[in-house]
Amino acid sequence: MKPYIKEGDNLKVAVMELRLYAPWVHSLKEKRMVVKSLLGKIRSRYAVSAAETGEQDIHQTLVIGVAGIVAHAAQADSMMDDILAFVENSTEAEIVSVEREIR
After folding, report:
1. For residues 75 and 5, what is the distance between their CA atoms, to the nearest angstrom?
2. Distance CA 76, CA 56 (A)
3. Range list of β-strands (E), 1-70
4. Are 101 and 30 in contact (CB under 8 A)?
5. Higher pLDDT, 6 or 78
6. Which of 34-38, 70-74, 99-103 has the lowest mean pLDDT?
7. Burial category of 79 from C-beta neighbours within 10 Å (exposed 0-12, middle 13-18, buried 19 and up)
8. CB–CB of 100/16 below 8 Å?
9. From the CB of residue 36, how many other CB atoms can be counted at a distance below 10 Å?
10. Whether the predicted pLDDT of 34 surpasses 90
11. Contacts of 81 by beta carbon, 8 Å cutoff, 6+ apart
12. What is the Cα–Cα distance from 33 to 54, expressed in whole angstroms?
């Protein structure tokens, strides 16, 4: 896990929502297994909160929200880029859209 915060830094909240399409998923049970695995990997690798945030009844669409606290905006961008690359390499699901916000 990468340390993104150093003592004395001003904190920023980084929020990202990923929408993925998984055409091979044919049931909600199968979707839950895919989502649970991906969320676990994201949480264990990065110091962030992650959850399924939408489209929970549509079996081929995954919507995942990720939020983390970082020292400044550049670290927020770096963290979100790292997570996005990790998701791209960790699943066969296609990333349809990404929304980012730094507060």
Report:
1. 8
2. 27
3. 12-21, 49-54, 61-70
4. no
5. 78
6. 70-74
7. buried
8. yes
9. 11
10. yes
11. none
12. 16
0.70 exceeded by the pTM? yes
What phi and psi, each to the nearest 5 degrees, are found at residue 91? -145, 155
User: How many other C-beta atoms lie within 10 A of the C-beta of residue 7?
Assistant: 5
* Fold topology of 22-102: Alpha-Beta Plaits (3.30.70)
Other C-beta atoms closer than 10 Å to the C-beta of 67 total 15
Domain boundaries, the chain: 22-102
Dist. CA 60–CA 28, nearest whole Å: 8
Residue-level length of the chain: 103
Q: What is the mean pLDDT of the chain?
A: 90
